[in-house]
Structures are given as C-alpha cells and as structure tokens.
Write a structure and sequence with these properties.
Elements (H helix, E strand, L loop, with lengths): L1 H32 L3 E8 L5 E8 L6 H18 L6 E6 L10 H6 L4 E10 L2 E11 L3 E6 L2 E6 L3 E6 L4
Parallel strand pairs: 2-3
Antiparallel strand pairs: 1-2, 4-5, 4-8, 5-6, 6-7
Helix pairs in contact: 1-2
C-alpha cells in the first residue's frame, strides 16, 4: 500500500516541478524587467486549494506596491498562458529575513551578514555555527566565527538563515 502512496507522491512532485518550470519561464523575464529577481517559487496545497507563491527581491527593499504590481502583471500573463491546470491563488511577496537558504544564490545574497548554520555532522566540534558569511562557492561556505574563518561544506548543512540581531 505504501508503495502506491510513494508512487503517487513522486508523480505529484514531478508534476509540481514541471508546473514550476513553466511558471518560471513566464515569471523571470517579467520580474527581471521590473528590476527585481525571482528568488523562489512554491506550489503548495491540493484538492483545488493550491497556492502559487512567488518570492521576489531587489537591491533596495521590496515594497507592497512592488508585490501588487508583479501580482497583477503576472496574473494577466498566466491567465493567457495557463501553466497551471487547476485552480490556484497567486501570492507575491519578499522572502523575509527568516527564510532558510535553499540555493547558493541565497548564501551569496547574505555575504557580509551574520548567519546561523546548522550542520548534520560536527565541523570544528560544533553543529551550530553563528558568524559573518565571508564567502560561498558551489561546495563550501566560509564563516568568520570569533575572528577565525570556518569552512563548512554545503553538503553538510541542514539549515542556514540570517541571524537577526535585536
């Protein structure tokens, strides 16, 4: 029984990825032309209650008006292109400071900032690392922890996000 359920989940996941790829092709040029960057797309929900989340960012702060403008323009194009075969609600927002990093570009966006990284195995005897993000490649993140560089392999990171200082 669980094999059928696993197969159904795999098919749904593949279908969602295909849908997100189609939406990305539509959304990226529109968002780029507005001087912003498409950070991520999420399709969540089910049974006629899907939500398409479009996360945008720009060098200065993303405003509510930016989100409204992109939402309207993207909605108009998607009504014509129809990349999602079922009913959905479109949400456009900025990712927020507390959003975990998913891609190398998320790390690059946080260069010079204070971050918190959790690893699945100890690095220099610790699994929790808080420091200033100094560098990021496709394989390794370098944090400045207590004025010393600490290199953490990306493959060992389970969670990374901006550390908020109050």
């Amino acid at each position: 029984m669980s094999t059928r359920l696993d197969e159904a989940k795999t098919i749904m996941s593949e279908e969602h990825e295909e849908i997100l790829d189609r939406v990305r092709v539509i959304a990226e040029p529109l968002i780029s032309a507005s001087g912003m960057e498409l950070v991520d797309l999420e399709l969540v929900g089910g049974r006629g209650n899907y939500i398409l989340r479009v996360l945008i960012e720009k060098p200065s702060k993303v405003t509510l008006q930016d989100c409204v403008t992109i939402n309207r323009e993207l909605s108009d194009i998607m009504d014509v292109e129809d990349p999602i075969p079922y009913k959905y609600t479109l949400e456009v927002s900025s990712p927020g400071l507390d959003r975990p990093f998913k891609y190398v570009r998320d790390y690059n966006r946080a260069l010079g900032k204070l971050v918190r990284i959790t690893t699945q195995i100890p690095v220099e005897g610790k699994m929790e690392h808080i420091g200033r993000l100094e560098d990021c490649s496709d394989k390794v993140v370098t944090l400045l922890v207590d004025d010393k560089p600490r290199q953490i392999p990306l493959k060992d990171i389970t969670k990374a996000l901006r550390e908020l200082v109050w």
